[in-house]
Amino acid sequence: MTQESYPVMGNTLPGISTLKSKASACGYGESCAEVWRFALFSLLACLIRWDTGNDDGTKEYSNLDFIGGNIIEPLFPVECLVYEYHTVIQTASVLPEADSARFNSGLIDETGDPWWQSANHGLYRELRISIRAYQLLSTLWDEVYFTQAKTQDVQIKAPARPSFPLGNAGDMISVFNAHGSPRSRMDPLPVRNTGNITPRSPPCSASTAGYSATESRIGKHTMKPYFGITGGWLTFWVTVACATDMMLFGYDQGVFSGVIVTSDFLDVLDLNGKTSLVGTVTALYDVGCFFGAVAAVLFGERLGRKLTIICGTTIMSIGALLQITAYSVPQMIVGRIVAGIGNGINTATAPVWQGETSQVKWRGKLVVIELVANIAGFSLSNWVNFAFSFLSGPVSWRFPLAFQFVFILIIFGTVPWLPESPRWLISHSRTDEALQIIADLEQKDVNDSYIITQHGEIVAAVQYEREHSVPWSQLLRGKTGDQSGTGAIRRLILGMGSQAMQQLAGINVTSYYLPTVLMQSVGLSNRLARLLTACNSVSYLVAGFFTIPSVERWGRRRLLIIGAAGQFFCYLLITILIRFNEKPDYPHQTEVASASVAFFFLYYVFFGLAFQSITWLLPVELNSLSMRTKGAAVGTATNWAMNFMVVEVTPIGIANLGWQFYIIWTVLNFAFVPTIYFFYPETSNRTLEDIDRYFRDNKSIFVNNTPEGLCVERPARYAEIEQSLVDSNAGMLQAKKMQIEEGFATVEQHEAA
């Protein structure tokens, strides 16, 4: 490249009239918004042509896989060129050694030539474009440009020497988005106005921005979102965060069962012989969880999935600290309630976040993994309780309570840097950010037709639900308005029902009180009861792992029916065996007591197989997009309300009803089998949009007569609909490419004339 072919300071930026002419030549309107949008890309395109030494820079980029941007909005020929060049620059080589020193010294050579004239000294063209882009950006942010360009052409502003290393052109033109966060290349660009134009300054200096302009050309790399992790590994870390959250939930469920039989705890809080008060202290945790789930309904949709979990975990940490330092029943009660509020918020949000960031083929498995982690936390709490039962004094119960901070720290260390739910972002008009996250989660380019289709389906679903949304005031009165076609109330009730069934299956008769049950109903010693409780939790965990490969292969319905039938069988035999064990003169009390313990173990296996995890998954899958946060939160609130009832009545029922108390859970588990068979549709191997489509197309509350509600594999009709959308989008992209090429030709003809 010669010195003459490289533009020096004083390049002219065209004014409004010139830009309108260029926009018209491309076949676009002359509205102010389009003109200014066109202006930005037109100018940067000129810089690219100058710095590549290509008089016809358009030809080099005419064969594009995809144009970039939102296919719904108008696209300009120069826009696609800028987007494509962003990729070209990002893959550029590093500077030669000789140029690196000059670059680090401010791009001034030995002869004192200005840094913008360094084109003749071996600098890579990508770096020159970075310089030109920075120069242009400085001009666009200058008040003089915005004032003068309305009526006349202006000169490019002479830039000061950069105080930071320059990155690539794509970085420089897109440092910040509207929220002051690092801007992706799919974000709206800084200059966008529909009327009165006002200059805009960067939210912060480039040297201190979250998106630092650090370039790979001097041995450094630009900071990427999520530390550069995409695809399966990004989903893995979301799962780690959600699973840790649910492990904390499981640990909290199990740890108090060992605490309330610790002698020092009973002495310090003066609870010896106060069975009813012990039950209240235990159960008030679930009251807090209920109100936490309600809080997630009120604030979760406003805050987003990530921030809601962080708030919930912060509240949990406060509650845990109050419990650890408690020396009185009132402080312990406050600590239990506060911790419960945080846990209720988290358990209402984590499954939703996991479900909305998972690929279809992994969604069920990953949510199940969360609930298996819940079992792991429960199992860990039992073994910690057993280990500390050999110690005396405050450490025997304060340390098990303090151990939950391990999980809290992991949550604080992972959640902030992971992606937000793309569905939540789209529902809050942050569609470009959502598109990038979908691409990152799928490990595909944002321009891939599959990504565009997924993004478009969510956008369409959000728009549909927004147009048919129903306020809570009407929904609670049974009125659904225009949303009657979506089955909103039916889906809400099914989600609530799945959570109610989990608690009414009798799991927390044993989760909170198994040592008490084994000591009072079976007659075991304190130490042996703790040991068997810990061993039982291991079989529970193994059963939970079996669900991971089975939940998509066997389906939700089949596993739930098998689980309910197995739980009924176990409680039936437990009831019979404890009846004989309570007979004072029965000669085989030891044998029937041992047999009842075996069926408590088997009950956990059946519960871990299905009801532990799938009942949490269904509210996320069954509710429509606009109702998903509300539906999951209401389902969780139902779970905690039932949980409170079970935990409150269990010690009283064991003490006063004896073996007859277990008849309740036997009957309830039997009733779950026909309930699931007739009313719950299959949701495995379906997208969330497939499930929306099912409820719109099938109005009957009975699902046993609809093949799409029973089959485990994805219905062929749904797959055909999605494929047609993918093909349609691919055709639109090809047509748009041809339109862009025609636009280039029109611009060239206009300029030649």
Automatic annotation (TrEMBL):
GO MF term (any one): carbohydrate:proton symporter activity
Family of the protein in this entry: Belongs to the major facilitator superfamily. Sugar transporter (TC 2.A.1.1) family.
GO cellular component: membrane
Protein name as annotated: Sugar transporter
UniProt keyword terms in alphabetical order: Membrane, Sugar transport, Transmembrane, Transmembrane helix, Transport
InterPro entries documented for this protein: MFS_dom, MFS_sugar_transport-like, MFS_Sugar_Transporters, MFS_trans_sf, Sugar/inositol_transpt, Sugar_transporter_CS
Domain Major facilitator superfamily (MFS) profile as annotated: residue spans: 238-684
PROSITE patterns: MFS (PS50850), SUGAR_TRANSPORT_1 (PS00216)
Annotated compartments: Membrane
Membrane topology qualifier: Multi-pass membrane protein
Chief subcellular location: membrane
NCBIfam families, alphabetized: SP (TIGR00879)
Membrane-crossing segments per the record: 226-249, 277-300, 307-327, 366-391, 397-418, 528-548, 560-580, 592-618, 659-680
